[in-house]
Design goal:
17 helices, mainly alpha, globular, about 55% helix, 2 strands, two-stranded antiparallel sheet
């Protein structure tokens, strides 16, 4: 008899061979493998040239002179101290230098009241008032003191940024990170730091308070973070959008203990109270009419390189005449749709990261993503406001390699279009959407489908 062949039976010793996890391709080098790769020498050389350019810009600011916004602050302080209305053009122009006469005071009433109180205090101790100049801008002790304070604030801001884990390579020192940060701040985003120095704006102080808050958040100090962010929001109200971040603990790998929920909630409530109650108190104790402030704010119509915001671009592309007053019609609708899309995509990405990490928390990449999203969403974003994106740009430059790095550097520093800063912010936002979504130790991992294992022949 010839035995009937039987089908092979499964052999318990034949198990699928485990397949190694393969990383999802990313445009960044992995943070999980420390290396000693240094930034290109050309990048550091450009940073040295940027430092020299900054010195020249400081000299030009004092010698031409510039700092137009400082003249507006001084004039508004005198008007409020004399019980006037800084939002009335005729009253303000009578108290400011001719070099600042083309500008308006658009800060909220509680800021105007604070300036007026400072001027009255100066009068009380006998500090003389400088009469407005019929031509140019006054250069005196206040001018140089304000410039020195701005330079000191910029130095502290750069130092805070350099302490952040912006580079994935262990061989990149803090001094090298500081050099790249200086390069981006001086030459990037239409020379954002120099725009702030020339204008004499207080943006650098706002950014210092904001980033002190972010650094405190990542260090697990929610109360300090809430007070710092609230201080920035008191001057620039839209910055209050970052206050809810106080509720999030630092993420894995941040090296900080997780503050209890009660302390985070208390910090958020304290920050919200400072950001809301103080302006209300200022409005209740001042004689200024908030309607004048809203009228002046609505009349602003700055576009192009001085205000390269999404709303300004929509108004230009859709042919709204300049000056056009408050935005309306299709430009406003287009901006609202774009802002909603950016906000929704950013929120979805954060939720995905939280799922991978196992809980809602905050890491540096999340902060950088949200700062880029804010620059695309806010209806008014001046050229010096892009100082907020310097850490995000440095983060990308230190993680990208090859042609991608140099292409991004050219986009940041070689301005060929008046809305190029907005384009650079969009590219950074897209890069940060693709940043590693796990706990910071490299790109997310995925396993391929198990391959079929051939059975060995049965005799």
């Amino acid at each position: 008899l010839i035995p009937t062949p039987r089908p092979p039976t499964p052999d318990s010793s034949l198990t699928p061979i485990p397949q190694p996890l393969t990383p999802i391709p990313r445009p960044f080098r992995s943070a999980s493998v420390p290396t000693s790769r240094q930034p290109p020498r050309l990048l550091l050389l450009l940073a040295a040239l940027a430092a020299l350019y900054l010195l020249v810009a400081v000299w030009q600011t004092a010698s031409e002179p510039k700092q137009w916004d400082l003249g507006v602050y001084r004039g508004a302080a005198r008007v409020v101290a004399d019980r006037g209305d800084p939002y009335e053009p005729s009253q303000l122009s009578a108290q400011i230098d001719q070099g600042s006469a083309h500008l308006s005071f658009v800060y909220p009433p509680h800021v105007a009241s604070a300036l007026g109180a400072a001027r009255r205090a100066a009068d009380a101790i006998g500090l003389p008032r400088a009469e407005p100049l019929a031509e140019g801008i006054r250069v005196d002790a206040t001018f140089f003191g304000f410039l020195a304070l701005k330079l000191a604030a910029a130095a502290v801001l750069l130092w805070i940024w350099s302490a952040l884990p912006l580079a994935s390579d262990a061989g990149i020192t803090r001094a090298q990170r500081l050099a790249v940060l200086l390069l981006v701040a001086v030459a990037g985003f239409h020379e954002t730091l120099l725009r702030d120095l020339y204008a004499g704006n207080i943006s650098v102080f706002e950014q210092l308070a904001l980033w002190l808050g972010f650094a405190a958040l990542l260090a697990g100090a929610p109360v300090v973070a809430a007070l710092s962010i609230a201080a920035a929001a008191l001057v620039k109200g839209p910055l209050a959008v970052f206050l809810p971040l106080v509720l999030l603990p630092p993420g894995p790998g941040a090296g900080s203990a997780t503050p209890p929920w009660g302390r985070r909630s208390l910090a958020a409530a304290l920050g919200a109270l400072c950001a809301v109650a103080l302006p209300l108190l200022g409005a209740a104790t001042t004689t200024l009419d908030a309607r004048g402030w809203r009228t002046r704010l609505a009349a602003l119509d700055e576009r192009g390189s001085s205000n390269p915001s999404t709303l300004s671009l929509a108004r230009d592309l859709l042919g709204e005449p300049l000056p056009g007053g408050p935005p309306s019609g299709w430009p406003l609708a287009v901006w609202m749709v774009l802002a909603a899309v950016v906000a929704a995509v950013s929120a979805r990405q954060l939720v995905q990261r939280w799922r991978v990490r196992g809980r809602p928390c905050l890491r540096l990449e999340d902060v950088l993503l949200l700062t880029c999203a804010a620059s695309l969403v806010l209806p008014r974003f001046k050229n010096y406001s892009f100082l907020m994106l310097v850490p995000a740009a440095t983060w990308a430059l230190l993680r990208l390699g090859g042609a991608s790095r140099w292409g991004l550097l050219l986009l940041l520093t070689v301005a060929l279009w008046e809305y190029q800063a907005l384009l650079a912010a969009t590219v950074l936002w897209l890069l940060l959407l693709r940043a590693p979504t796990e706990d910071g130790h490299g790109a997310p991992q995925r396993a391929p489908q198990s391959a079929n294992v051939a059975s060995r022949p049965v005799s």
